[in-house]
Predict the structure.
Amino acid sequence: MAWCVVHPGGNDGDMNNTRIPELRRDQGWTQEKLSFESGVGLRTVQRLEAGQDASLESLALIANALSVSVTDLFEPAEEMDVTDRLESLDRRVDEQQTARNRVLRSWRMLYVGVGIVVTILSVLLGGAGAAIIIAYWSGGLIAIIALQRIVLEPRLDEKYPLSRQLTRTQRKRGAPVLVEK
């Protein structure tokens, strides 16, 4: 799913008012680093920095990597329509990320809930129960991580295209766009 970006700089076909190079340099990042952190192609980063069009999804991913809103990627626009559209995109990104986080948290809570039940039942079994507890919490963790990466994440990517799985770097930085309210 891709959308065309409204041109904040007018109808000349370019987005002349982008702040992406400035925000990238403030992070001390190269274009390659921004490409890696955002999950968009290097060529897309280069096009955006040159003031060319990109999808709203690419803008949302870059804003997320830079820990800013999509609106902050541009100089203040004089046209209210553009500002409204960018703010609408920010809201959609937040809503999709919140929904994605809710699904992931539900899966984790299900794993923990089942684990508690398994642990209680295993304690009641006595000696063999310890092996069951260890098998569930270690083997079950490996299984739930595999299911999340192989089955759940691709489906969430499809259902919530503006949301992203947090990288370790984004978790450390706090990634404000991805934090559930």
Q: What stands out?
A: The two ends are 26 Å apart (CA to CA). The mean pLDDT is 79. The first helix runs from residue 20 to 27.
